[in-house]
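To illustrate the input format used throughout this study, we show a single complete record. The first block contains the structure-token representation of the backbone; no residue identities are included at this stage. The design step must infer an amino acid for every position from geometry alone.
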């Protein structure tokens, strides 16, 4: 049987790492990881840049899926502005639709493009941490019964008739409330109190992850009654976006005020047991919103600076990449 050298005319390279500019089909042995690698055309999940929001902002919320999403609320400077704007995404462009009744940032949301829920949030002056809840019917926002605890920087998951409000700032940031379509009811708290947490899933099977107070990589699973701590993020961060379900989620971007620079492009994928690092955002940012699933996702808005209109789509694509050869 012919060996590699006889076929291609050279021996397999043995290097401590990966070559800086490999050729398609090139094979090498990475002595740092004790593995064979090849640079080849593959199919994989990655981020692609889409059309921007009409109103650039951060600390906004979102609902829906990759091809039918909703963006609402948020904050921008200069001048300091809390937004009521709502925009709908059709898979290509964002279109302005009717505003929230209460302009606010750092709010939570969930649901679909035609049946969404917005709750909590922050506005100033005067400083207000909102209890307000609004329901979207595809055309207009309607005010409904309030949260029991006014707070901002909380997470939401579920639908517009069955939702969870998780964590937040400033008081009792472990608070969890459940929405039945009419009223909010306090249920059991998070195991680790925090704000800027992200949540995905339903009222009976949810995932809460990341956050601050303190900065946290903690992940907790909700079974409809209690929160249980499971395996942490690989990279501790806050103010990212989350999409998916309790068994298949993405943790997208975010920041860590203890680091410089403190803004991440990192994306991690949750398989129900562990987080794994996958392909990065094209634009590193925090305080963005997300919509969709772990295989068809949307990330939009965020900071730093005035680039908070950026939209990226997470989906399957084809291209050249380095892969590990396994037996």
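Output of the design step:
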């Amino acid at each position: 049987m012919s060996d590699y050298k006889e076929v291609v005319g050279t021996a397999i390279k043995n290097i401590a790492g990966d070559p800086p500019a490999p050729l398609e089909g090139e094979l090498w042995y990475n002595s740092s990881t004790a593995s064979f690698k090849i640079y080849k055309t593959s199919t994989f999940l990655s981020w692609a840049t889409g059309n921007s929001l009409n109103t650039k902002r951060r600390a906004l919320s979102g609902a829906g899926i990759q091809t039918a999403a909703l963006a609402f609320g948020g904050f921008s400077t200069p001048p300091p502005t809390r937004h009521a704007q709502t925009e709908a995404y059709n898979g290509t462009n964002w279109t302005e639709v009717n505003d929230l009744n209460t302009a606010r940032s750092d709010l939570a949301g969930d649901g679909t493009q035609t049946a969404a829920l917005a709750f909590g949030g922050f506005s100033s002056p005067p400083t207000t941490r909102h209890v307000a809840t609004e329901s979207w019917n595809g055309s207009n926002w309607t005010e409904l019964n309030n949260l029991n605890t006014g707070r901002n920087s909380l997470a939401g998951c579920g639908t517009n008739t069955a939702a969870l409000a998780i964590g937040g700032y400033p008081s009792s940031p472990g608070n969890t409330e459940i929405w039945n379509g009419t009223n909010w009811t306090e249920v059991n708290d998070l195991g680790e109190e925090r704000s800027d947490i992200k949540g995905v899933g339903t009222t009976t099977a949810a995932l809460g992850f990341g956050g601050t107070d303190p900065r946290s990589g903690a992940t907790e699973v909700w079974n409809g009654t209690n929160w249980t701590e499971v395996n942490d993020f690989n990279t501790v961060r806050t103010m990212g976006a989350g999409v998916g379900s309790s068994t298949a989620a993405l943790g997208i971007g975010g920041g860590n005020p203890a680091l410089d620079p403190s803004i991440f492009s990192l994306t991690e994928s949750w398989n129900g047991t562990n987080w794994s690092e996958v392909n990065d955002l094209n634009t590193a940012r925090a305080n963005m919103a997300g919509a969709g699933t772990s295989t068809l996702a949307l990330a939009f808005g965020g900071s730093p600076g005035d680039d908070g209109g950026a939209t990226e789509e997470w989906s399957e694509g084809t291209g050249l990449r380095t892969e590990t050869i396994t037996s």
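Structural context for interpreting the output: DSSP finds one helix and 30 strands in the chain. The domain at 53-309 is CATH 2.120.10.80 (Neuraminidase).
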